[in-house]
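To the wet lab folks,

You asked to see what we're planning to order before we commit. Fair enough. Below is the target structure as tokens, and below that is the sequence we designed to fit it. If anything looks off to you, flag it before the synthesis order goes out.
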């Protein structure tokens, strides 16, 4: 069978023939893969930079996908940290890490949306007691996950949403869609801090996809602009597109009721993640989310891998 294969952490995967995988345990089945999303997490798996990387090569990338098993059922599956990923004609899944999809689910839509949508859905459901009526700041709101976070916070009853990012065109689209006040993170740091501080002074929850320097600056800006220091502020670390480490100002933690939590593999258990998926699938099937998706044949994985210019679309590889 054919698969995308990574033989070096420095180069894009190549489409090549490999041995057909075999199930090893009673809970495992081989599925025909129908769709696998090219998420940032998959890129970090394939370049060895993700915190779960074991440096083992060669590897087939892909952390989740939609496939059909020998029982004919359509499943969304999440793979364990493995070198046998979903970007292949077939892969082995553990049925305990999968959910059966309704027969009419669109494999490409589910493969595109589940990973980025899960990031905020699970953070708000599993890492905090999110109260409808809360004010939310999304840091990094123009990526696939950030744009979905705006929609999901709204769905869960946020009273107000501030959407902050750099890309002016995508921020304008978010503003036009309504429901969120946009703040540009582009420009002089002092100006950004003033803008963000003014817009986000009274937020209750931050969904943070950036980390690194932008997060340190945003945290200082929000905390110093608060009118009521006793108002709880929960900062949920979800992504790290701007840096793996951030210099958190110590005063932010002393001068406000700031709590920092993370949401992702490990801080949320597999069981908790799976428990949320049916409701998320239902929302996707109902067309609740606006996401731009591009299906690309798996044989073109090398070319699409190298093209990182378009963060608007979520690419889905189709064997
Ligand atoms: N923990 C979880 O459960 C979970 C689940 C899914 C995804 N994630 C993580 O969430 C993050 C975002 O994922 P995604 O799917 O939205 O990615 P994406 O679609 O590639 O979007 C990333 C966005 O980040 C912004 N960005 C990139 N570099 C930046 C920088 N140096 N400073 C500020 N902004 C920068 C860009 O927007 P602008 O150019 O407009 O700023 C871009 O649109 C990734 O780190 C991903 O691994 C976490």
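Sequence we intend to order:
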């Amino acid at each position: 069978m054919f698969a995308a294969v990574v033989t070096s952490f420095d180069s894009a995967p190549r489409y090549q023939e490999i041995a057909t995988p075999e199930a090893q345990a009673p809970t495992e089945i081989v599925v025909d893969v129908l769709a696998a999303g090219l998420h940032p997490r998959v890129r970090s798996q394939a370049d060895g930079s993700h915190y779960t990387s074991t440096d083992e090569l060669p590897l087939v990338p892909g952390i989740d996908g939609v496939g059909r098993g020998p029982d004919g059922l359509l499943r969304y599956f999440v793979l364990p940290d493995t070198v046998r990923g979903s970007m292949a004609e077939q892969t082995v899944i553990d049925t305990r890490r999968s959910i059966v999809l309704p027969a009419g689910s669109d494999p490409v839509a589910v493969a595109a949306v589940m990973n980025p949508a899960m990031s905020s859905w699970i953070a708000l459901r599993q890492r905090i007691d999110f109260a409808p009526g809360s004010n939310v700041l999304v840091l990094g709101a123009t990526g696939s996950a950030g744009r979905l976070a705006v929609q999901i916070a709204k769905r869960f009853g946020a009273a107000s949403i501030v959407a902050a990012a750099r890309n002016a065109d995508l921020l304008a689209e978010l503003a036009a869609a309504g429901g969120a006040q946009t703040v540009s993170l582009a420009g002089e740091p002092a100006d950004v801090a003033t803008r963000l501080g003014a817009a986000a002074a009274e937020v209750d929850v931050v969904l943070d996809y950036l980390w690194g320097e932008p997060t340190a600056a945003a945290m200082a800006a929000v905390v110093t602009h608060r009118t009521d220091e006793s108002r709880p502020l929960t900062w949920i670390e979800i992504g790290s597109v701007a840096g793996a480490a951030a210099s958190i100002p110590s005063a932010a933690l002393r001068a406000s009721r700031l709590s920092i939590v993370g949401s992702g593999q490990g801080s949320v258990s597999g069981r908790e993640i799976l428990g949320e998926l049916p409701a998320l699938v239902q929302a996707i099937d109902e067309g609740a989310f606006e996401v731009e998706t591009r299906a690309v044949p798996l044989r073109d994985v090398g070319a699409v891998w190298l093209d990182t210019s378009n963060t608007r679309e979520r690419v889905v590889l189709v064997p």
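Structural context that might help your review: The pocket of NAP is lined by residues 39-41, 115-116, 118-119, 140, 142-146, 165-167, 170, 209-210, 214, 238-242, 263-264, 311 (CB under 6 Å). The chain has a mean pLDDT of 95.

Thanks,
Computational group
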